[in-house]
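Possible regression after last week's pipeline update?

I re-ran a chain I had predicted before the update to compare outputs. Posting the input and the new output here so someone can diff against the archived version. Not blocking, just want to make sure nothing changed silently.
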Amino acid sequence: MAQTVSDVMTRNPATIDGGQTVGDAARLMREHDTGVVVVTADGEVAGIITDRNIALRVVADGKPADTLVREACSGDGLHTVAPDTAIEQAVQIMRQAAVRRLPVIQNGRAVGIVSLGDLAIERDEDSALAEISAADRDQ
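New output (post-update):
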């Protein structure tokens, strides 16, 4: 049974500089078949941008696809974990912060993403969320 975030995380997440556009971020999401991209500024992790961020902060507000990523991403109060973080601690952070994904950071660099679905699969592979998350991986 997995014990640390490193055991369940998605490795080598897509990254984008905050000065690039949300259109670029959306293309990266399509290319990497993901709903999240890690945002960097000066080589450091500065936030994440999700498909939900793009839908609610750009499209719903009628902003153009050339809106900068840094204007639409979640960055303030970003919660992160290290690869050796215990799974239970990651669950607790997600619960307290009400977030679905945590960037996994090592030496200032994003080495992974751990999602609510990753943790659901690990904790109870027969749960509805685990089944849905596992099906998403198979597509």
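Follow-up from reviewer: compared with the archived run. Residues 22-32 form the longest helix (11 residues). Marking as no regression found.
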